[in-house]
Amino acid sequence: MTEDPTPRYTVPGLEREAAGRLIGALRLRLHALNDLHLTLKHVHWNVVGPHFIAVHEMIDPQVDRVRQMADDLAERIAALGGVAPGTPGALVAERTWDDYSIGRADAIAHLGALDVVYTGVIQGVRAAVEEAGEIDTATEDLLVGQLRDLEQFQWFVRAHLESAGGTLVTAQARTEKEAAAKGAASA
């Protein structure tokens, strides 16, 4: 993080230092959501193949909801007395993950990669929920609602990758490229 997130003031009932810890966690979640909404649009624009229209149309509602989640987090950061960094430079400087690595590709390849992306985002939200639960129930509640939606979106993605027997074609994939290759091979 490029600056001390401890605010000069915060919401009643929270100590400034605790609010600063929370703001720090929320800033990274904000970056993750901004990155996710751009990644989803990238997939929307670069998906091809026989499942094109299904994936193309499935992605836009996810983009809209993820953008709303980012707005909600930014407003919570501001309410806590912090600064919500919304610039691309701040996102790139502070993120802890690499840029999405798949260009124009088959729908199933993109969905395989998105499954890995969603896993990373969801794990980050779960960690933030745990930290928020120790500090502020209002923020914890906001994150829990977002977690539910993100898990549903991953389920939508995984439904395209799952066999009738319940096996994910991208099981054991650790990277986007590995998951994309497994997805493409199964198509």
TrEMBL record:
Pfam families assigned: Ferritin
**Domain of life assignment:** Bacteria
Q: Which residues form the Ferritin/DPS domain?
A: 25-162
Query: PANTHER family, per this entry?
Result: DNA PROTECTION DURING STARVATION PROTEIN, GENERAL STRESS PROTEIN 20U
Q: Which family does it belong to?
A: Belongs to the Dps family.
**Official protein name in the record:** DNA starvation/stationary phase protection protein
